[in-house]
User: Fold this.
Amino acid sequence: MKIETQLARAGLCTDEKTGAISTPIHPSATFRHESLGCSTGFDYSRTSNPTRAVLEKEMASLEGGYGGFAFSSGMAAVTAVASLFSHGDHLVLSDDLYGGTYRFFKKIAERFGIRSDFADLTDIGEAEKAIQPRTKALFIETPTNPMMKISDIAALSSLAKKKGILSIVDNTFMTPYLQQPIKLGADIIIHSGTKYIGGHNDVLCGIAVCATKELSEQLGFIQNATGGVLSPFDTWLVIRGLKTLALRVDRSQDNAGEIAVWLSGRRDVTAVFYPGLLKGRDGEIHRGQSRGSGAMVSFCMKDKGQAEKVINSVKIISFAESLGGVESLITYPAVQTHSDVPAEIREKLGITDTLLRLSVGIEDCQDLIDDLKQAMEG
Ligand SMILES: Cc1ncc(COP(=O)(O)O)c(C=O)c1O
Assistant:
């Protein structure tokens, strides 16, 4: 079955008794036992819930993994995955990483003795150099947020295997529709399901998928023990979002491609970062490991004043954090998503006060271009 069909059928007829096309919502916190030692398979909703189980199974299948886990936010998924590690362990993280993930590892995980260093994972040599005797995992984003740097998932996963450590990929930007890192050798996938998976800016969600039974058992234990699970109501919204993932991503991606080209042709835009514009090795790697460029476009205006003018003048595009919804959003990474990354690191990575990040939605493309044009020229 093609992934488009699988997505459209997400959660279909999971209730055999009624044949309900839509997944039933089970808001029960607990489940009655017929007698001692006799369970329906559901005991308590933190451990497992019938609605959540549908989404978790779908996500595992879509990513080609063994076990899926749904959390109350992307950061809850990151926290649960980080709980696989212990005091004294060390992780190597993509240097250009979602700011919240940076904040979690530097300001929370370090207090629990889980150390981390950042490395340019687009360079396998740099990745290898960063691995220490206590390193337990590589944490990869590709394309990175917000600079769209590309890492070679297969090469990093095979390096991780050679070193006896895990490879973890945050697949939020690409979704399993465009990129399936487990099939390239990764051990764990993380999503902010708040983004493309949910797709409508109306729900917070995190997803983790493990490649093996052993890792799934460990993460399932952590999910139950720490408890940041997705509610049945929110799960239902996410399943509904999944059904249209392919359509939404296709449309947003077409729009993003056109907008990236339009931005590249403007004198007042000094740089455009979009996987579809990449030439040479990075472009080749991205095209080899994914089936599209996605719908995230970052770009630099000539100066800070111009960047602020665009933010303050857009009318159709909303100035808001987040991404991956049907509505286009514009974000100021240095001030919003990446404000917790120290200024000198931001500067080094190119996350300057002239950089804007566009999450392109499904609107009419010309309307979006006209909106950007009036915001830049008005
Ligand atoms: C790439 C990436 N990973 C993780 C997260 C965290 O997800 P959430 O906001 O759902 O907690 C985000 C949020 O923006 C993100 O962009």
Notes: The pocket of pyridoxal-5'-phosphate is lined by residues 73-75, 98, 100-101, 141, 145, 170, 172, 192, 194, 204, 206, 322 (CB under 6 Å). The first strand starts at residue 67 and ends at 71.
